Amino acid sequence: MEEGEGREEGMEEKEERSGESLLPLRPSRPSHPSLLLSLDYSRQPYYPWRTTTDECANYATRFLVPGRAPIVALASFPGSGNTWLRYLAEALTGVFTGSVYHDEMLALRGFWGERESFWQGSTLLQKTHSLPLLPEVKQEGSAGSGEFRFLLPEAPRRVVLLLRNPWECLLSLRHYHAAGHTGFGSSVFFRGQSWHNFTQERAREWVHLNKAWLTLPATDTLVLHYEHLQHRLEQEAGRLMTFLGLPLDHGRLECLLRYPEGRFRRPKYPKHLQGYTFPKSSDVTLRRGMGALSSLLAKGGHPPFPWALYSFTPPVQPPP
């Protein structure tokens, strides 16, 4: 069955179809008002596990009735695994996530929230790789250089920040630039002056972006580490659902643990592409930046960088 088609005849959906389904959004802190998320049954659902032969095939992902969902940013530096986290969130909640980018390639793979406006309120989490913009700063006209920034709602607000081994982030982003979402760039993209310039610029951006999201005032922030999602998915799934104030559906969780990879994720690096080295200058930038960010993580009560789970810290090239 092609993506975008309805269910096959005789396949009964596990979710109740009578009227709207009201999902309680409980505050993760007392400052958040209680909300109800209403599933929109007038729109076609997507079945992420429709090709399986078990009960997981019955679980659907749906849009929300517009205007009923709070704007919650799902922020990360490019290459951090944001799309995979969206798959996890959609699998757990049964609600589409959104994005500021409108990537049709992702939409064709089942991330239908890509076609929605992220301010529409019909999706649950909003993917962004941009810096945050506070509403009071926008009103004052001091947003800066004119680059796109994610306009946050009025406080109190919630943000999910995804962090990943920064060396892996830069490698993933370079592969994306060279070969798209799931492809691999040739080794020529990872050496020479172009690679040196890329890593130095992006290392500074990685530090700057994560610092900006970690220092937002009047913001309830959930920090997730990509490596924790890899190694203790069940525990991190519980943290995410508690933060969103949504009940954990153990049937959905069981299916997610059964099919954790998702439908749009780059496979592991081929062996012939594993001999990466990083310029010393960018390595120093990342390590110093992680020191500063570690202090912010500790100050905010967030999990520290999981160094023991980092499978890749590259050899360093001496300066030319």
Automatic annotation (TrEMBL):
Biased amino acid composition, Acidic residues = 1-13
Q: Where is this region: Disordered?
A: 1-29
Please indicate which superkingdom the organism of origin belongs to: Eukaryota
Q: Which InterPro entries does the protein's record reference?
A: P-loop_NTPase, Sialate-O-sulfotransferase
List where Low complexity composition bias occurs: 20-29
Record's family? Belongs to the WSCD family.
- State the protein's name: Sulfotransferase
